[in-house]
Amino acid sequence: MLTDSELIDNILNNNSQKAFEELVNRYQSLVTKTCLGFVSNYADAEDIAQDVFIEVFHSLKNFRSESKLSTWLYRIAVNKSLNFIRLKKRHSGLRSIESFFTTGNSNKSESIEIASPKSTDADWGIEQQEDKQMLKKAINSLPENQRIAFILSKYHDLSYKEIAEIMSITLSSVESLLFRAKQNLQKKLLKEINN
Amino acid sequence: MNCKEVNNNFINSIEKSLSADKQSAFEAHLSSCASCTESYRRFRSVYQSINIEVEGLTLNPLLAQKAWEKATAKVNAIETPIVPFRRSAIVSIAAAGVALGIVLGTLLNSSSPTVNTNSEYSIQLADDYFPSNLYSPYEELDNND
Questions:
Q1: What local confidence, expressed as pLDDT, does residue B51 receive?
Q2: Residue of A nearest to B60 (CA)
Q3: pLDDT at site A28
Q4: Residues of chain A with C-beta less than 8 angstroms from the C-beta of B54
Q5: Domain that holds residue B36
Q6: What span, in angstroms and rounded, lies between the C-alpha atoms of B55 and B57?
Q7: For B51-66, how does the pLDDT look when each residue is reduced to its tens digit (9 = 90+)?
Q8: Which of A16, A99, B9, B139 could hold A10 in an S-S bridge, CB 3.0 to 4.6 Å?
Q9: Taking CB atoms and an 8 Å cutoff, what residues of chain B touch A28?
Q10: All domains in chain A, ordered by first residue
């Protein structure tokens, strides 16, 4: 089995499709799981993962081998996911303005927006879907740095050291971010559950 | 532990990060409090939906091929430069448009005929068709008398 750097050399020097596909297959789970932490459904996570690997293909020449490839991939996946959410928010804002003028009721599009992720994950039961939506809503309401630290920790079981490296922050910052993320999440979930 | 302390330790208990003493106090409270037991059951179900989501993840075997096709298609395509429009630019252009509209509207309004009221306009119109120095219907009326 070729190492990461051998695969990268193959892609850069020979434009090898086989090497690229091997690289994607090796890290697909890591990237898709990261994206899944930020979005509500598998289809969106897969779309972002595809974008991540396209970006990787175009930026491989800029990759400095001092850091691990996985660290670099985590960073790209996090950035792409955050951009995806920002774009989606902007589009849904525009859509609600548009529907306000066309139908005179902006709430209608919001209900469609909330319902759409559920319909894609048909295997989930209704209660599980509700649980997942509640958790996603709470995670997405966390401040950005807390959200990133929490997702890297919960979706990948990464150590504080690895999270610190990916986020380019100190170990104590990771510890504090995770502590605050869990506290905030606990408050938000309890509020939702007790409502 | 009281209800508040128990509620504040839900995540710690799920992640098994409570000390043995605290965990047993936590469990003792749950066994005597139906409300906290129900909240904890619901909370655990929500919090652990992450694990179900991650475990249920099935990877697309065609992703690598699709990514390759898109990545190389981008390289081969003739790239046309796209001029990015920032939100601030769009807002500035809209504001400039509104300001221009106000200026043009004001100018056009001020360059309209100097007559203001309908009666003045009617007199001017009548004067254009029947100039009073050449023809006056009152003169004929006077002659017939």
A1: 87
A2: A46
A3: 95
A4: 33, 36, 155
A5: 3-55
A6: 5
A7: 888 888 888 999 999 9
A8: A16
A9: 59-60, 63-64
A10: 1-122 (1.10.1740.10), 124-195 (1.10.10.10)
Which residue type is seen at B114? Answer: T
Does the pTM surpass 0.90? The reply is no
Tell me the chain B residues in contact with residue A54 when contact means C-beta distances shorter than 8 Å: 67, 70-71, 74
Residue B101: pLDDT band with limits 50, 70, 90? very high
Q: Which amino acid is at B27?
A: E
Report the alpha-carbon angle A34-B58-A41, nearest 5.
Answer: 55
User: Cβ contact (<8 Å) for B65 and A21?
Assistant: yes
B79 assigned to some structural domain: no
Which run of H or E residues covers position A131? helix A126-140
Could you read off the pLDDT of B3-12 as tens digits, one per residue? Answer: 999 999 999 9
Dist CA B43 CA A134 (whole Å): 10
Give the total number of structural domains in chain B. 1
From B39, B68, B75, residue closest to A17, measured CB to CB: B68
Q: Is residue B62 part of a domain?
A: no
Q: Tell me the C-alpha distance between A135 and A113, whole Å.
A: 17
Q: At what angle do helices A69-103 and A144-156 cross, to 10 degrees?
A: 120
The reply to whether residue B46 touches residue A54, judged by beta carbons under 8 angstroms, is: no
User: Within an 8 Å CB–CB cutoff, is residue B37 touching chain A?
Assistant: no
Q: List, for chain A, all residue ranges whose pLDDT scores fall below the cut of 70.
A: 93-124
pLDDT tier at B113, thresholds 50, 70, 90: low
- Residue with token string 């330790």: B9
Could you give the CA distance from residue A26 to residue A21 in angstroms, rounded to a whole number?
Answer: 8
Interface list for chain A against chain B, based on CB atoms closer than 8 Å: 17, 20-22, 24-25, 28-29, 32-33, 36, 42, 46, 49-50, 53-54, 57-58, 123-124, 127-128, 131-132, 134-135, 154-155, 182, 185-186, 189-190, 192-194
